[in-house]
Write a structure and sequence with these properties.
Blueprint lengths: L3 H23 L6 H6 L1 H5 L9 E11 L2 E11 L5 H7 L8 H5 L4 E14 L5 E15 L2 E15 L5 E5 L2 E7 H9 L9 E15 L5 E14 L5 H19 L5 H17 E17 L2 E13 L5 E11 L2 E11 L4 H10 L10 H4 L6 E12 L40 E3 L9 E14 L2 E2 L2 E2 L1 E12 L19 E13 L4 E11 L3 E10 L12 H8 L1 E11 L2 H13 L3 H19 L4 H15 L3 E8 L5 E2 H6 L3 H5 L2 E7 L1
Antiparallel strand pairs: 1-2, 2-3, 3-4, 4-5, 5-6, 5-7, 6-8, 7-8, 8-9, 9-10, 10-11, 11-12, 12-13, 13-14, 14-16, 15-16, 16-19, 17-18, 19-20, 20-21, 21-22, 22-23, 23-24, 23-25, 24-26
Helix pairs in contact: 1-7, 6-7, 7-8, 8-9, 12-13, 13-14
Length: 658
C-alpha cells in the first residue's frame, strides 16, 4: 500500500499534468493544430484531377505517434494532385518521412466539420480535443496561409475526476506543416537553425477546469513567430519525457533513480534551448480555486512575454482576492530574463553520474536584469478594535494636538497613494473588525551577476510605502512610532549591496530608510571576510558571517524632519516637564554621559559632543568609523567585547552635527 502523502503527491502530479496538457493544447507548438492539416492530406487524396472539384470523405483516421486523429467527414477542394499521389503521400507507415511528403501537399481549401484528437499519457491520463468547423485555406507546398476553427472542447481523464474546457475561435496564419512535423517527429542535435511554424496565432475564450476544480480563463491568447530547432527524440518525445519525469519526481522525490532524473533534466534542457518564441500575450486572465480559506481568485488584465535582447515578462492589473484579503498591482514587470543558469544546471544534471546538490534549486532560477512594480494595494482583515476609537494610536493622549499626519489632513506629492488606514465597516468586512490597508507607489529591484543562483549585487528601492503605524507595533525602533502620534507611515527604503570576490568584501553602497514628517537614516560601509562560502547551503549565512566577517568602514547619517520633536513632546508630557527642560537634560546627558559610557576616548568625546549639538538643534548627525586594522573589526570581536571602550579603541571615529 502506498503512503498517503505519496498518493497525494501523485494526485497533484496528475492534476498538474492535466493542466499542462490543457495549456499545451492552447499553445501553438501543441498537438491539436497538427491534425488539422495532416488529416486534410488523405481527404485531398480524393480530389479529382480538376482544380475545382470537391471531394467529400468519411471516417478518416490517422494515427500519429501517441495520438490518433479522426474526421467523420471532410471536404477537400482545389488540389492538383491525383488520387494515387495523394494516397501515397498520406499513407500511414510509408517509408518516406512526413516532412518530405507534406512538402508536396496542395489544396485550395480543406474543411472538416468535426475533428477529434486523442492522446494518451503521461501514465493513465488521456486527453481528447474536439474541434468544430476546421478550415485550411490556400495550402501550398505544405504551408497553410490561414487555418481556422470555430471552437474546441477539451476533456482530460485518468484520475479520480475529469478535467474539461473549451476554446472559442482559433485562427493561425502562415502555418508551416513541414517544419512542424520535423520538430515533432524528426530527431536533431538541437543546434540547427530555427524553423518557424506559426507566423501568428490567436485563440479566444479559453476555459479549463482541472480535476481539483481549479478553473482557468483567458479572454484572448496571441502568439507570433513560434518555432524551434530539432532535438533528440523530437518535441513530441521530449514533452512526453518531461511530463512522465515530473510526475515521478513529484511522487518519488529523492528516491527517483539517477537515470530517470538525468533523462528528465536532459529533455527539459532540450525543450528550453530549442523552443523559439517571438512573443506571447494573454488578456483577461483569471484563475479560481476553492480551498479551506474560501475561494482564491487571481486575475490579470494582460500578460505579455517577449524574447530578444530586452527579453521580459509583464503583468498588468494583477489582482488577488481570498475572503476579505485583497491585493492588486497596477503593473509588475521582469526585464533582462536569461535562462542560461537554468540550462547550465539542467545540462549538468543530465549526466547520470552527476550528484544532486543542495544549491541546485537556486541554480535553476533564471537570471533577471530587474523587477519593477507600480501601484500595490493590499487590504487585510484584522482583529476587532480594543478601544472606542480604532484609529487611536497606542500611547496617544486625549488632549494631544491634531495630527498633521492624519489621512486627508494635507495633500501628498503627485502620484502618492492614498494614506493607509485601519477602518471598520468596509464593504464585506465583518462587523467589529478592522481592515488594514497597505499601499506602495513604486518598487524597483535590480540584480547583478549570479553566483550559485544568488545575485552578487542588487539594489532594492521602495517608494511610497504607506501603512498604519499600528502594524509595526512591537518591531524594533519602528514599534515606538505609534506612541509618538503617528497613525500612518509613509516610508521610502533603499538597499544597495555588492560583493567583490577578489577582495572578499561586501559593500553596503546604500542602506536607507526615510519617512514623511519623520526623518531619514542612511548607512554605508564595507564588510570584509565575505568569501564564496557565503553562497554555500551547508551553514546559515548569519552563523557564517559571525565567524568570518569583519567591519572595515561604517558611515551613518541621521536626519530629522519631525520625529525628534514628537519624541520630545511625548516624553516631556510623560515626565511632566517642559519640552525645553527635557531637551537640555538630553543635551547634558549626551555631552557628559555618553563619553563616560563609551570609555572617555577622543572618539567617545567626539560622539558625545555631536549628539549634544544634534539634540540642541536637530538637523543632521554624521558618524564615521574606520577600523584601525586593515583586516577590519571582526563581528565575533564585537559580540564578545567586554565594554564599548574595547571596541572604540580599535576604530577611528569622526562625528559632527550639521
Amino acid at each position: 500500500m502506498s503512503h498517503p502523502k505519496a498518493r497525494a503527491r501523485r494526485a497533484r502530479a496528475a492534476r498538474a499534468g492535466s493542466l499542462a496538457c490543457a495549456l499545451t493544447l492552447s499553445l501553438p507548438l501543441g498537438l491539436p493544430l497538427l491534425p488539422l492539416t495532416l488529416a486534410a492530406g488523405p481527404l485531398a487524396a480524393q480530389e479529382a484531377a480538376s482544380a475545382v472539384q470537391d471531394v467529400t470523405l468519411t471516417d478518416v483516421v490517422l494515427p500519429l505517434g501517441g495520438a490518433e486523429f479522426r474526421a467523420p467527414k471532410a471536404t477537400v477542394s482545389g488540389t492538383r494532385l491525383s488520387r494515387d499521389e495523394l494516397a501515397a503521400l498520406l499513407r500511414p507507415g510509408a517509408a518516406e518521412p512526413w516532412p518530405a511528403r507534406l512538402a508536396r501537399l496542395e489544396a485550395a481549401s480543406i474543411t472538416i466539420p468535426v475533428l477529434v484528437s486523442e492522446h494518451s499519457g503521461p501514465g493513465a491520463i488521456r486527453q481528447t480535443v474536439t474541434y468544430r468547423e476546421v478550415t485550411a485555406r490556400d495550402v501550398r507546398a505544405g504551408r497553410i496561409a490561414e487555418l481556422t476553427a470555430a471552437g474546441a472542447a477539451i476533456r482530460v481523464s485518468g484520475g479520480d475526476k475529469e478535467g474539461s474546457g473549451t476554446y472559442g475561435q482559433i485562427r493561425a496564419n502562415d502555418v508551416d506543416l513541414v517544419a512542424l512535423t520535423r520538430l515533432y517527429g524528426v530527431p536533431g542535435d538541437g543546434k540547427g537553425t530555427v524553423q518557424r511554424v506559426y507566423a501568428g496565432i490567436q485563440v479566444a475564450e479559453v476555459v479549463y477546469t482541472d480535476p481539483t476544480g481549479t478553473t482557468m480563463r483567458i479572454t484572448e491568447l496571441q502568439g507570433r513567430d513560434l518555432g524551434g530547432r530539432q532535438i533528440p527524440g523530437g518535441f513530441g518525445g521530449a514533452l512526453d519525457a518531461v511530463a512522465v519525469g515530473l510526475g515521478r519526481l513529484e511522487a518519488e522525490g529523492d528516491a527517483l533513480p539517477a537515470a530517470e532524473r538525468a533523462k528528465l533534466a536532459g529533455a527539459g534542457a532540450d525543450l528550453i534551448e530549442a523552443a523559439s518564441v517571438g512573443a506571447i500575450e494573454a488578456r483577461g486572465l483569471s484563475l479560481s480555486e476553492t480551498g479551506p480559506r474560501g475561494t482564491l481568485l487571481i486575475e490579470a488584465e494582460r500578460l505579455a512575454y517577449a524574447t530578444g535582447p530586452e527579453a521580459g515578462l509583464s503583468l498588468e492589473g494583477l489582482a488577488f482576492t481570498q475572503g476579505e484579503t485583497r491585493a492588486r498591482f497596477d503593473r509588475l514587470a521582469l526585464t533582462g530574463i536569461s535562462l542560461a543558469p537554468t540550462l547550465a544546471t539542467l545540462r549538468r544534471l543530465a549526466d547520470p553520474a552527476a550528484a544532486t546538490q543542495a544549491e541546485d534549486a537556486r541554480r535553476m532560477m533564471p537570471a533577471l536584469g530587474g523587477l519593477t512594480l507600480k501601484g500595490l494595494s493590499l487590504d487585510l482583515p484584522g482583529p476587532a478594535p480594543t478601544t472606542a476609537d480604532p484609529l487611536a494610536a497606542p500611547g496617544a493622549r486625549a488632549d494631544a494636538k491634531p495630527d498633521t499626519n492624519k489621512p486627508g489632513s494635507r495633500p501628498g506629492p503627485a502620484g502618492t497613494p492614498p494614506p493607509a488606514t485601519t477602518q471598520p465597516g468596509q464593504p464585506g468586512q465583518p462587523a467589529g473588525q478592522v481592515a488594514t490597508h497597505v499601499a506602495l507607489r513604486d518598487a524597483a529591484l535590480s540584480f547583478g551577476p549570479l553566483r550559485d543562483g544568488v545575485p552578487t549585487a542588487g539594489r532594492l528601492s521602495l517608494s511610497g510605502l504607506v501603512m498604519p503605524a499600528a502594524t509595526v507595533t512591537g518591531a524594533p525602533i519602528l514599534g515606538a512610532l505609534p506612541g509618538y502620534g503617528y497613525r500612518d507611515l509613509d516610508l521610502d527604503l533603499v538597499a544597495d549591496l555588492a560583493w567583490d570576490e577578489g577582495r572578499r568584501e561586501l559593500a553596503l553602497r546604500e542602506v536607507a530608510v526615510s519617512g514623511r514628517d519623520m526623518g531619514a537614516v542612511r548607512l554605508t560601509g564595507t564588510v570584509g571576510g565575505v568569501g564564496p562560502e557565503i553562497f554555500s547551503a551547508e551553514m546559515p549565512v548569519s552563523e557564517m558571517l559571525m565567524f568570518t566577517a569583519s567591519a572595515r568602514t561604517l558611515d551613518l547619517t541621521v536626519e530629522n524632519t519631525g520625529l525628534f520633536e514628537r519624541f520630545i513632546a511625548t516624553q516631556s508630557k510623560a515626565l511632566s516637564l517642559k519640552p525645553e527642560e527635557l531637551r537640555q537634560e538630553y543635551v547634558s546627558a549626551s555631552q557628559f554621559g555618553v563619553p563616560v559610557i563609551l570609555g572617555g576616548s577622543a572618539g567617545a568625546r567626539a560622539i558625545g559632543t555631536a549628539l549634544g549639538q544634534f539634540v540642541q538643534k536637530p538637523g543632521r548627525l554624521v558618524l564615521k568609523a574606520r577600523a584601525r586594522d586593515a583586516a577590519g573589526l571582526g563581528f565575533a570581536d564585537v559580540a564578545l567585547a567586554r565594554s564599548p571602550a574595547a571596541i572604540l579603541d580599535r576604530v577611528e571615529v569622526e562625528a559632527k552635527a550639521e
